[in-house]
């Protein structure tokens, strides 16, 4: 762990109890779920598993905990797609809308549970036809179109694990993930719409396969934007051709509760992303539970909308698996919030009568910048619950959400969780919790969090490191292919506890305030990016000899990436070269990982033992005072870095 930078907010003492009319109709409005879970958390989760899911075979063991390896509901068998689709259709809800899908250029598709089930069965047969078998892995690199959840659910129907790769990632990122997972197939689209234009995807897959991912035998391509991409004979197949011939008869196979459901790669503190493993029964239990209680879901009447991308865990759990398991109607949106206008989201909320909106603090800060007049163009009174996820929400953004989107009358649920935790962990329950702007409040029933200090002692008031002290159903089961790294990353820092990598504070009332990462992971617009990964991409540029990357504060994106680079001898520092180096990271990793600023420096501040002083670089990035620099190998370096940083700020 590198120098923790725990900063404590000023005391925030505004409180917002659940509105009385909301609490009166809420799925839960008292302490009973907490009491039940505190009395016996295994029994609590077993009850949720049996009530929320349909099992082909019941389980006997609730939890087998061989620290750090958990098995939940071991003997149980179930199929995820059957829980998401078949059982609702069998219960007479086949005509219920599963998704109202909105494409960016204005196209709309409404798909019912029965229709979705047919598509999933057909695509499961396509997968079988391409030789995929239970236990295999498939990579998915797609825009936000309905074929994406169809592909995911088809995988679950036959026990194939999917690995969804966010559509903004580069060819190199695809290669790394396909090689690591030994993916046999890539499912993609020619392109996806972004701000009115088609953004190519298939050519990036081609590039990846040219670099080399030998396990990939076939590519299935959805023709989303009619961009006429190159198709390689024998390897590349059009989705519509395969589907035209596929049978819609495909029974759901019962899977063991611990069958691998998916891999989702996330940035850690090294250059190599980790393939986070999620399995079937426990994962589905916790996402269904949280979706029902955190969003106060009323499946018969609600129109729920999580405005995330399925390429991230939020989309997996709260666009696909949670909402479908609970049989609700969701909105799914392909595009960006500013196209065709800056009121796009509010237009969608009004037209569908959206009841729950789940988005990120970065988006809220952007809406604030655009101004309340955009929200005032639309009737937002259908909204009942507002959610946020991905990064700490500053009290100003929370209040703006409360006032301008929530009309000062809707509960806000600030949900803390991670790719690794699979589902919400720390969040208010909207009918129960009195909220404070900027606090994620309390762990959900059945989840137990503790703050610890540097020595691992439990902190009951003030700042510390966030740990989870008991296993939970949707916890990651490991890192694909690297058992040791799993143990090391999450379970070795504090004995017997899961180390989340976040700093937090407990206030006098026992409320938790999440304060951001304490390791070398940055959070840019709610996306996790590893400093090491960006550093490797920087030094990959031929003109760069050494690089150090830090996350500086940014009003809009939470953090922004600052890269400090030392040039290889013979290269002249220039604005053009800095830009070229910046672009290089975009090409290597994807645009989201491109530094906001690249600062060319003659040297980097290091301790006498040769460790780069990131704290100092962060201070420079934030324009803070430099403080005590006497542990530097060469103090003059710092002044030089600071002046270069100031120059590049002016550009
Ligand atoms: C951060 C996203 C504060 C945190 C679901 C965590 C948050 C990382 C919150 C996980 C929140 C997420 N308040 N910080 N409500 N939600 N984070 O894996 O630093 O993309 O460790 O999962 O985001 O990011 P990930």
Instruction: Report the span from N to C terminus.
Output: 34 Å
Structural class: alpha/beta
Runs with pLDDT <50, length 5+?
Answer: 1-9
The small molecules bound here are: 5'-O-[(S)-ethoxy(hydroxy)phosphoryl]adenosine
Q: Largest beta sheet: what is the strand line-up?
A: 12-11-8-6-7-14-15-24
Percentage of residues in strands: 15-25%
Largest sheet: 8 strands, mixed
- Cα-based radius of gyration, to the nearest Å: 24 Å
Tally of contiguous helical segments? 20
Number of strands: 31
Q: What is the residue-mean pLDDT, rounded to a whole number?
A: 93
The backbone outline, from C-alpha atoms, is globular
Helix content: 25-40%
What order do the helices and strands come in, and which of them pair?
Blueprint lengths: L19 H6 L6 H8 L1 H12 L10 E4 L2 E4 L4 E2 L1 H14 L3 E6 L5 E5 H17 L7 E5 L5 H12 L2 E4 L6 H11 L3 E5 L1 E4 L2 E4 L1 H10 L6 E5 L13 E3 H7 L9 E2 L3 E7 L7 E6 L1 H14 L8 E4 L6 H13 L3 E5 L10 H9 L3 E4 L1 H10 L2 H4 L8 E5 L5 H11 L6 E4 L33 E4 L5 E2 L2 E7 L9 E2 L3 H9 L6 E9 L5 E6 L3 E4 L2 E4 H9 L4 E11 L3 E10 L7 H15 L7 E4 L13 H8 L14 H15 L1
Parallel strand pairs: 4-17, 6-7, 6-8, 7-14, 8-11, 11-12, 16-17, 16-18, 18-19, 19-20, 30-31
Antiparallel strand pairs: 1-2, 3-13, 4-5, 9-10, 14-15, 15-24, 21-22, 21-23, 23-25, 25-26, 27-28, 29-30
The protein binds 5'-O-[(S)-ethoxy(hydroxy)phosphoryl]adenosine.
């Amino acid at each position: 762990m590198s120098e923790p930078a725990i900063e404590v907010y000023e005391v925030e003492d505004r409180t917002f109890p659940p509105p009385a009319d909301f609490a009166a109709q809420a799925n839960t409005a008292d302490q009973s779920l907490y009491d039940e879970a505190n009395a016996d958390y295994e029994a609590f989760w077993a009850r949720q598993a049996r009530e929320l899911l349909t099992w082909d075979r019941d389980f006997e063991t609730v939890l087998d905990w061989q620290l750090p390896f958990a098995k939940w509901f071991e003997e149980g068998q179930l199929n995820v797609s059957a829980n998401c689709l078949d059982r609702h259709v069998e219960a007479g809800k086949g005509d219920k809308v599963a998704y109202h899908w909105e494409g960016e250029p204005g196209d709309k598709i409404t798909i019912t549970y029965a229709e979705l089930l047919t598509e999933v069965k057909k695509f499961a047969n396509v997968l079988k036809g391409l030789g995929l078998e239970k236990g295999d892995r498939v990579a998915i690199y797609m825009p936000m179109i309905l074929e994406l959840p169809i592909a995911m659910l088809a995988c679950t129907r036959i026990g194939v694990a999917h690995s969804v790769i966010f559509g903004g990632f580069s060819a190199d990122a695809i290669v790394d993930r396909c090689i690591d997972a030994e993916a046999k197939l890539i499912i993609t689209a020619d392109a996806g719409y972004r701000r009115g234009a088609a953004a190519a995807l298939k050519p990036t897959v081609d590039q990846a396969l040219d670099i080399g991912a030998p396990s990939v035998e076939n590519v299935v391509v959805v023709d989303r934007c009619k961009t006429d991409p190159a198709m390689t004979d024998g390897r590349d197949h059009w989705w519509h051709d395969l589907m035209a011939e596929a049978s819609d008869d495909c029974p759901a196979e019962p899977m063991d509760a611990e069958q691998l459901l998916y891999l989702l790669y996330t940035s850690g503190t090294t250059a190599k992303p980790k393939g986070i493993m999620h399995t079937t029964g426990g994962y589905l239990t916790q996402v269904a539970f949280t979706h029902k209680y955190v969003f106060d879901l009323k499946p018969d009447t609600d129109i729920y909308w999580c405005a995330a991308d399925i390429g991230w865990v939020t989309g997996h759990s709260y666009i696909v698996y949670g909402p479908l398991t609970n049989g609700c109607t969701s909105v799914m949106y392909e595009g960006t919030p500013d196209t065709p206008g800056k009121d796009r989201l509010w237009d969608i909320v009004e037209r569908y009568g959206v009841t729950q909106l789940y988005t990120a603090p970065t988006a809220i800060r952007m809406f604030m910048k655009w101004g309340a007049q955009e929200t005032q163009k639309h009737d937002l009174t259908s909204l009942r619950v507002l959610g946020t996820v991905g990064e700490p929400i500053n009290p100003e953004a929370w209040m703006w959400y409360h006032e301008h989107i929530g009309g000062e009358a809707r509960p806000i649920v600030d949900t803390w969780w991670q790719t690794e935790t699979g589902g919400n962990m720390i969040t208010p329950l909207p009918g129960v919790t009195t909220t404070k702007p900027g606090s994620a409040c309390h762990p959900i029933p059945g989840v137990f969090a503790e703050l610890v200090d540097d020595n691992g002692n439990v902190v009951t008031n003030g700042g510390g490191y966030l740990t989870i002290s008991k296993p939970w159903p949707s916890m990651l089961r490991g890192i694909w292919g690297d058992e040791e790294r799993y143990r090391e990353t999450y379970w070795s820092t504090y004995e017997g506890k899961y180390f989340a990598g976040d700093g937090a504070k407990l206030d006098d009332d026992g409320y938790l305030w999440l304060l951001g990462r304490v390791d070398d992971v940055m959070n840019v617009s709610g996306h996790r990016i590893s400093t090491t990964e960006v550093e490797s991409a920087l030094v990959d540029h031929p003109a760069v000899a050494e690089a150090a990357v830090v996350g500086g504060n940014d009003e809009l994106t939470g953090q922004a990436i600052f890269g400090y680079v030392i040039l290889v001898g013979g290269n002249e520092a220039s604005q053009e070269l800095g830009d070229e180096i910046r672009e290089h990271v975009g090409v290597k990793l994807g645009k989201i990982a491109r530094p906001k600023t690249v600062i060319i420096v003659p040297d980097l501040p290091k301790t006498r033992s040769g460790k780069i002083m990131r704290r100092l670089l962060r201070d420079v990035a934030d324009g803070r005072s430099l403080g005590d620099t006497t542990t530097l190998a060469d103090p003059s370096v710092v002044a030089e870095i600071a002046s270069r940083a100031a120059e590049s700020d002016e550009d």
